[in-house]
Write a structure and sequence with these properties.
This protein is an alpha/beta fold and about 625 residues long. It has three domains: about 250 residues, NAD(P)-binding Rossmann-like Domain (Rossmann fold, 3-Layer(aba) Sandwich); about 140 residues, Quinone Oxidoreductase, Chain A, domain 1 (Alpha-Beta Complex); about 170 residues, Rossmann fold (3-Layer(aba) Sandwich), CATH 3.40.50. The protein contains 20 helices and 24 strands. The strands form four sheets. An eight-stranded mixed sheet has the order 3-2-1-4-5-6-7-8, sandwiched between helices. Strands 11, 13, 14, 15, 16, 23 and 24 form a seven-stranded mixed sheet that branches. Strands 19-18-17-20-21-22 form a six-stranded parallel sheet, sandwiched between helices. Helix 19 links the parallel strand 23 and strand 24.
Length: about 625
Amino acid sequence: MELKPGLSALVTGGASGIGKALCMALAEKGIFVTIVDFSEKNGMEVKSLVEEENAKFHPVLKFPSAMFIRCDVTDTRELTGAFKKHLATYGGLDICINNAGIGNPVPFYKDQTDGSDSWRHTINVNLMAIIDCTRLAIQTMQVAQKPGVIISMGSASGLYPMYADPIYSASKGGVVLFTRSLVSYKRQGIRINVLCPEFVQTDLASKVGSKFINLMGGYVPMEMVVKGAFQLISDESKAGSCLWITKRRGMEYWPSPLEEAKYLVHSSKARRSSFLFSLNLQIPESFEKLVVHTMSHKFRSATSIVRMPLRLPIKPDHVLVKIIYAGVNASDVNFSSGRYFSGNNKDLGSLLPFDAGFEAVGIIASVGDSVDNLKVGTPVALMTFGSYAEFTMVPSKHILPVARPDPEVVAMLTSGLTASIALEKAAQMVSGEVVLVTAAAGGTGQFAVQLAKIAGNKVVATCGGGEKAKLLRDLGVDRVIDYKAEDIKTVLKKEFPKGVDIIYESVGGEMFDLCLNALAVYGRLVVIGMISQYQGEEGWKPLNYTGICEKLLAKSQTVAGFFLVQYSQLWQQHLDRLFHLFSLGKLKVAIDPKRFLGLHSVADAVEYLHSGKSIGKVVVCIDPTFSQQIAKL
């Protein structure tokens, strides 16, 4: 969300400390602010200051640019009234900051009362009120039908124990896990995050001994807390995120990927036993599939649809999968022309006909004997030949359980896995490098640019056309080079004179030459395809690269090839990681909006992909009735 004049915000505990600083920072952006606090004197002072700042942006208004509402945040009725008044005044709620919080006045182990004025009250203010505020903020945003951001104020003591005040630590720990569990609201346009600073110089922190604070590196500057809050508001990829702020280490998202991996249960495995589709999985007597009957790079003329009997029972150790969505790949034409059988000693003609298609998602319709780890109705993915079919029989060892049989999961298969594994294994990607991705708006390029950004790199991407360039900017690419508007070679030479550290290359031909010349010292170029060479009239002709050895030697460079089939042992691990990032909102998946329905549209989809017009992953819905059935569910 862009912080701009005219937005409205509600801040609890806004009359002092961090709340006051956030109110003033929002006012400096021309944002209308409702200050909710128990202290009327301090609240009215902050209101006047906010109005003074807002007057620079809104000299004439028919409504107040700031409001103060005296409220006990533990009183649901008062709190509800505050949100209703804000909605009535500003017509919506763009930002809600749940900041109100207190320390525990009496040490937990010394409290001789029932805790109603001490530790119970601390829990009510620090945790229960934040749950209540979040609930009311979500409802207010839903009523206004506008996207919004909610930030709850946690604490570093909610991430790690605070031995001096276990009640305070427990309340803030509850805020952290409560907030991180609300990531799913992003689907409604509502992002909910938590900010966890260490000690900030406020009245609350002044009660902690200076010796301990000094051991922690000293006070966190208020400016850093405001910067962290604004980062969570502005960054559309942040949903369910926890931003930890310390004087020692700066701003970090918590937990780290390494820590997260210690407890993370892979999503597909966690759900496969409980999330079974209750669709009508009647098995027909026959089904249709697409086969290659003539070797040719012209996919349409090389393939045809045939009807086959569906024989039961299923072979032992096999499963029958009802295909829902199949993915379209540039290499479909290599497969139909027999290029992937070049190492086969048999006459290629003797292999005909063979099944077409590399990847799909669907639902298990039947299982054979000895298959005890998969059940009928389980959503699965597969990456075996024969995905352009209504049904396919697959050895159970090749099945990849997934959370849902959606087109986004199809995109994560050949396209997503190629990007994830190639960048890790072939490119040896770390952080702080410059990464160039060619044909970046396609199926695999979209994953490569995002994974490179997540790893902390500067990302450069090439594409052809304004729509593709916009997609890449939306995905966070630092520099988009639209070759229809500017010359790639000129841009790279001018803006990256020292070269590029990693190049993820899928175009081939002249683009490969250009990329090789743009590679930095120690640079790694990973070849994942050569789409520009696949459909030549004379077939796929290998190109000569005279002097390539000398060029690589001079700068200690590496050119690596990557073929996904040879990394099958890593597929499930990386697929689970991609789906996890997608579930958290950290990874976007672009599906080309052009619809292809049924097996008869596969050839159209392949030709569309090779036309260069596609944006994102091209997917064919093999069973168009599936989406209608899901809607009923």
